[in-house]
């Protein structure tokens, strides 16, 4: 059983993926080839924004957004301690300071009631993470940001394809970032990411930063980086994108079925009001995680933990001065979450094996 089945996906879309990649091999424009412009237009249309620019990774995308917003030394950015390190790493890379706000336990997303207390005169932005595949309440977050004159940047690395009040993830904030890492809901065959905005000036600045600080060759008005997306990876996504909505529907169906079968025995994900969930990871909460994971592994069922440590536990962030107990909900989640096999091609027979193993364990303990 595969935790995320990229092999089946490739088999299903092989003709389209191979043809798209062969086109790139034939024309030879491996850097910023025509597929880049085509993909950016398609992604912008999907999200419903004016501008999309593809970048080398979902980490570079956040850093580029910060640089374009002139977030730098002495500034603070609010985010969560329960996420992958990229969210806070990018804050540090531009010289700013991460300020952590705890999550709320049901959605695993930022506790909006705690944001205002974390805002100081140095706060420049809020970076909420749409964890596991659903968005926090961006209406409320944007309202807080407007009151305090700061920017909201969605970290939508795990939520591309999800919606809130009918609006797609990556289309509800000043700027948004996503990732095309292979395991993501829409993934390429390497690293990749994208930024989304309706702000013309911000889009132009981010494009310049992506290509060494300029949009014209040999003219560099800004200090930039090499953050370009490979043409071959754009070709892969262009082949996958026409199938994406069907995969979204499959993820919703599979996630709902997991919940229906497990909710009487385990703490299953809850879809928050006005949200849809992409289930980038289908994550339950358990008290004896290691023992359950070992039991499933012995039955041939893979699991994963997103994430076993909070960011304030990582040595690199020790200078921030946080300690164990500062973020109790994040800390508890990091010791209880367990993600089950989840992908659009998971059939009911495989899913039943996962569910049966979990129910048998529960009955025996």
From TrEMBL:
<dbReference type="InterPro" id="IPR000653">
    <property type="entry name" value="DegT/StrS_aminotransferase"/>
</dbReference>
<dbReference type="GO" id="GO:0008483">
    <property type="term" value="F:transaminase activity"/>
</dbReference>
<dbReference type="GO" id="GO:0030170">
    <property type="term" value="F:pyridoxal phosphate binding"/>
</dbReference>
<dbReference type="GO" id="GO:0000271">
    <property type="term" value="P:polysaccharide biosynthetic process"/>
</dbReference>
<protein>
    <submittedName>
        <fullName>Unannotated protein</fullName>
    </submittedName>
</protein>
<dbReference type="InterPro" id="IPR015422">
    <property type="entry name" value="PyrdxlP-dep_Trfase_small"/>
</dbReference>
<dbReference type="InterPro" id="IPR015421">
    <property type="entry name" value="PyrdxlP-dep_Trfase_major"/>
</dbReference>
<dbReference type="Pfam" id="PF01041">
    <property type="entry name" value="DegT_DnrJ_EryC1"/>
</dbReference>
<dbReference type="InterPro" id="IPR015424">
    <property type="entry name" value="PyrdxlP-dep_Trfase"/>
</dbReference>
<keyword id="KW-0663">Pyridoxal phosphate</keyword>
